[in-house]
């Protein structure tokens, strides 16, 4: 299950970033990446309504809390959904991967594409959710 989620997310590495993007052909944002990876692995979350570029993440957080199980950050595992928050910046979400060093696969707005990078570089999630 978790390997399928991570594999689907990795298939999107290099795909163009696009705000509210839900289609790998035209681009995805962080929410679109997670929705796509979960759906490809046989899971689904409800549609997340439109949201502004800078948002507090309350719609996403609400959907995650209703449909997934929150786990302690110290127990993060490959395939988990990590919710990130930095002071003054909107909430961000990504698929956690852990093969040796913990990492996150996410749609990086500033880099304009989906990337995978070490949590030692990006930072650890504020909250972690699991199916």
Description:
- Helices cover 26% and strands 28% of the residues.
- The protein is α+β, with helices and mostly antiparallel strands and 131 residues long.
- The protein has a single domain (2-130), classed as endopeptidase domain like (from Nostoc punctiforme) (endopeptidase fold (from Nostoc punctiforme)), CATH 3.90.1720.
- The radius of gyration is 13 Å and the shape is globular.
- The model has no long low-confidence stretch (mean pLDDT 87).
- The proportion of residues in beta strands is 25-35%
Biggest sheet record = 6 strands, antiparallel
* Count of individual beta strands: 8
Number of helices: 4
Integer tally of domains: 1
**Percent in helix:** 25-40%
State the CATH superfamily name: endopeptidase domain like (from Nostoc punctiforme)
Q: What do we call the CATH topology?
A: endopeptidase fold (from Nostoc punctiforme)
What is the CATH-assigned architecture?
Alpha-Beta Complex
Shape: globular
Spatial ordering of strands, largest sheet: 3-8-4-5-6-7
Pattern of helices and strands: HEEHHEEEEEHE
First and last CA, distance? 9 Å
Rg, Å, rounded = 13 Å
List the quaternary state of the chains: single chain
Structural class: alpha+beta
User: What is the top-level CATH class?
Assistant: Alpha Beta
Uncertain ranges = none
